[in-house]
Amino acid sequence: LPQLVAAGSLPGYRRESETDSAASKSLPSPSEALCLAAVSQPLASQELLLNFFLALSHRNTFPPKMIRTSFVRLAVRPLSRRCMSSSVPIIPLYINGKFQDSKATEFFTVTNPATQEVVCKVPLATPDELQSAVDAASKAFLTWRDVTPSEKQRVMFRYQHLIRENMEVLAKIITLEQGKTLIDAKGDVFRGLEVVEYACGAASHMMGETVENVGGGLDTYSYRQPLGVCGGIAPFNFPAMIPLWMFPLAIATGNTFVLKPSERVPGTMVKLAELAEEAGFPAGTLNMVHGTHDCVNFLCDAPEIKALSFVGSNQAGEHIWQRGGKAGKRMQINMAAKNHAAILPDASRAHVTNSLVGAAFGAAGQRCMALSTVVCVGDTSEWIKDVAEKAKALKMGAGCDSSTDIGPLISPAAKKRVEDIIQSAVDEGATLLLDGRNCVPEGAPKGNFVGPTIITGVTANMRCYREEIFGPVLVCMEASSLDEAIDIINANQWGNGSAIFTTSGAHARQFQNRIHAGNVGINVPIPVPLPFFSFTGAKQSMLGDLHFYGKEGIQFFTKPKTVTANWNPDVAAGVKTAMPILGSK
Predict the structure, then answer these.
(1) Strands (E), 400-534
(2) Is the Cα dihedral 480, 486, 489, 490 positive or negative?
(3) What is the SS3 assignment for 270?
(4) Of these residues, 368, 376, 439, 476, which one is catalytic?
(5) Residue 300 annotated as catalytic
(6) For residue 578, what pLDDT is reported?
(7) Per-residue pLDDT tens for 387-430?
(8) Nearest partner of 523 among 505, 541, 539, judged by Cα
(9) What is the full DSSP assignment across 277-334?
(10) Which residues pair with 13 in a beta bridge?
(11) Global pTM?
(12) How far apart are CA 228 and CA 575, in angstroms?
């Protein structure tokens, strides 16, 4: 190993830079030899070798481009078995318990948002491949639905253990593809892991009800059954958490699943599928396909798919709602948001300042629960200056740098849109208290960076208020009273979350009772419920009656069945044509 690392040229290996000649392609480079050795090791050893690669990159032992390629091949193990001759790995499909090469002719290129370097390519799966995934799920359902609850539970226990063991690896994949900081990426994985932990106890939440002797010798009981094949369409901003909101609970309740991860961040789901296989998910219970619009439309139309989960934009969500609805699917659609905080003068100024900085600018504002709008009651508008001062101290940069506070936006197009909305606010008469445009962090000059931005003097007709910005931008409004603040917030079309900062129990109670948002925080800036509750987004942030995870998640992936049984029929009573009245004596 030291020889390989140190080698500029070594007999039996080609130089890292040699990629053109047929002769050189027949020999592995030192980095490829390391990868080939690494992927044959157990998962724990793979993680050690991954950390070794990262250490080498810091010491410039290998060229950065080669380190990136080695990183992807090692962290996403199935890729490395087929991509040794290419500097750009191609993400596989996962169908019927096997990773497989796609026959696609079109691909989506994934780039590191901090550097614009190509990470991998995602195949746009063919119609036959999409149907193959659905067929595998349909076949697997015939046996998986009858597996005992205890065995399903054991599979989930093994799965949560493997996710916990591989949290570092998953976080590094997220940072590479999505750009968020490593500590934030670990939070992404952990919040998904909590749903897997909840899924370990799914059986207790599927228990039905029984009433004996509802009529003469008759008993009635109910229980919940799985739906069949379910589908999921996940967004780019939470590569681990959102898929883990979907398929673990569906599979734990006896369904099978076909998931389309975001084409922008596929690597995390590849690793999650690999861990699912290791945990003992039977072939066909979990399937992963890739694509864009055609793939989404296929999942909406496929008659075998009984339920569909989606998290993403309103434009996509409304399309899926309409198209999937025509196909008769049960759906849960979580979409855009404009989360508000009402700041009362009796609140803790320091707590408000810290909370707004973290909730507005963390993850570069790319959260559906980002606190993007503040309504200042009374003179609390002066507190925004404190927010600006703390925001200025945040460090922009690549997420793999442990000192970074805010990473890049997902794409150049996202950056341009955020900057256009900021300019529109200026054009419409608002004030930029803090302008994060033209941000070029040291060491990442090509990244999709927008720094923390604070816009004051905003009114409800401005574009920066009417649209979800999905960037590190805090929009500031003013109100003369709590009643006016509540009216402003309730007039907004979205209702994922809202928060109030106050030390008054009476004001807090008034707010929680009158506000229309589905998730409410009291001195909590991002009130995302833990999995034993449900994520209760409301208004135009949510389509469908049953929310993600928690008890409502169990209900979404199951259907009730009620049985009335008579084991002592009264044959002597003869034929009765009247409507039976079971509750009579």
Answers:
(1) 431-434, 453-456, 473-479, 494-495, 497-501, 519-522
(2) negative
(3) helix
(4) 368
(5) no
(6) 87
(7) 999 999 999 999 999 999 999 999 999 999 999 999 999 999 99
(8) 505
(9) HHHTPPTTSEEE---SHHHHHHHHH-TTEEEEEEES-HHHHHHHHHHHHHTT-EEEEE
(10) 10
(11) 0.86
(12) 39
